[in-house]
Amino acid sequence: MKSQRITVIPLGRVDPAPLAWLREDIPGIFRAGVEKSAAMPLSKRHFYPERDQYLADGVLSELPSPPDTTTELSLGITGVDLFSGRMDCVFGIACTGKALISTFRLRPELYGGAPNLKVYRWRVLTEAVHELGHALGLSHCEYPGCAMYFSNWIGDTDRKGPEFCYRCRRWLERVVGEDSPPAKK
Ligand SMILES: [Zn+2]
Ligand SMILES: [Zn+2]
Q1: How far apart are CA 185 and CA 165, in angstroms?
Q2: Which residues, 6 or more positions from 153, have their beta carbon under 8 angstroms from its beta carbon?
Q3: Catalytic sites, residue numbers
Q4: Which of the residues 72, 99, 108, 127 has an alpha carbon 20 to 30 A from that of 7?
Q5: 0.85 cut: is pTM over it?
Q6: Any idea which ligand is nearest the CA of 99?
């Protein structure tokens, strides 16, 4: 089995808590070593002042491409709000080998709720797993309980959670040789 390496790259100023959570939580889903790299600056080139958002595709293009995308992935994380194409806002975006998530719309406070680190952590992991799935080649899944289900709003993210369904998990095993994660203690 191939072993994966996932490098988490903060883009601009990022809340340190999600960085620590990702390093702890991703190995429960992917059999991967997770490293944190130095922060990269967020290029103002991708900022659209009239909407106070960054273009997700532009920010994604700034992330370094891993030399072997079957064993290495880059995961960018940013605190700014992202949009893409016709989508007014996105939780994240990905292309082969590269994934990007924004924490902006994952905090319960944004929706008028009380701060809740458990919910916030669940959302950060769920969106990271979804985009990493795309980075490995997975498409959207129609099963609402699968991490690869498309989140139209935050409620979809809360419901689906970070686990892959049986079919998506099998695809990962077959196509990229992603082994099942170690059994939970
Ligand atoms: Zn998606
Ligand atoms: Zn699935």
Answers
A1: 20
A2: none
A3: 131
A4: 108
A5: yes
A6: 1
